[in-house]
Amino acid sequence: MRHFVIVGILVIVTAILTYVGLDSVGLLPVEASAQAVSIDWLWNWQVVAISFLFSLIVVPMAYSLVVFRRRKGDTTDAEHIEGNTTLEIAWTVVPLIIVVIFAYMGAYSLGEIKRVDPDAVIIKVKAQQFQWTFEYPEYGIISTELHLPVNQQVVLKMEAVDVIHSFWVPEFRIKQDVVPGRVTEYRVTPNLVGLYKVRCAELCGSGHAVMEGLVVVSEEANYEKWLAEQQAIAAAAQTPEGQGKLLVVKNGCGGCHSITSTPLPSAPTWFGLFGSNVELADGSTVVADDAFLTESIVDPTAKEVKGFSPSTMPPYVLTEEEVANIIAYIKTLK
Length: 334
Ligand code: CUA
Known about the structure:
This protein is an alpha+beta fold. Helices cover 41% and strands 18% of the residues. The strands form 3 sheets. Strands 3-2-1-5-8 form a 5-stranded mixed sheet. The protein has a 5-stranded mixed sheet with strand order 4-10-9-6-7. Bound molecules: dinuclear copper ion (CUA). The site of dinuclear copper ion (CUA) has 8 residues, from loops.
């Protein structure tokens, strides 16, 4: 009996210390959505259960190793135990009750996360190797940044162009796959103004690690201001290079092609590209003129650039004017 009391106290103390230790590590980033509240509540109870189960196994084991070890000169056998019906029923029924309680908590939490606000803001999301693109259909805006109003539910209608990607903002806690050929939904109510990052959480190719996008959660007034600015930019972009820049955003070209002197891993940079000499995979050299760039857009494997062969770029179906506009934009990058 004395051993049971000592082990019982040690189990409780170790469980509390384990919980406090795990809690203080700060495993989760800041909580920035209404959905995160119920997820973190459930997670917290899981950590409580994990801490208790850990000490329930480790403490009696360590205690037995020390207290009931074989002493020098002791050659007797241990006491033979046939079984214990009460104990067996207890260790079946108690975990069963705990599992049922957690199932209920999980279902409750899921219900909270899936709660639909009929006035949710609709934003279309396009995922492709290796870029996130966001479209605000009500405003005719396309952006590579996701701007969201605080304390308002948004529903992202997500589509993938090529392979499976996964939309993940750790601070929002929720994660949703984006699958070619269907539209998946992601509902979130951001409740903390700030800058976050959407990451791709599904290995999708050579640029997977850099498939990130900026997420800006702002007050309603700032959000409206950004929408108005974007509408003005779209309206002002009537020049060929302005149109080209919009096409580049819309088609996600920036996911692979950098516009600075530092190239991304999966494709050549566009910075200083026009008019430069380009070394090809077969050893020859071409001048990056209108003809070469046009061919590279509509038939990317015709002439593959050294260091980026075999090409992973899909051929783009664009009108002659659209291709010319994109090249006009590329010409401005120097
Ligand atoms: Cu897209 Cu990983």
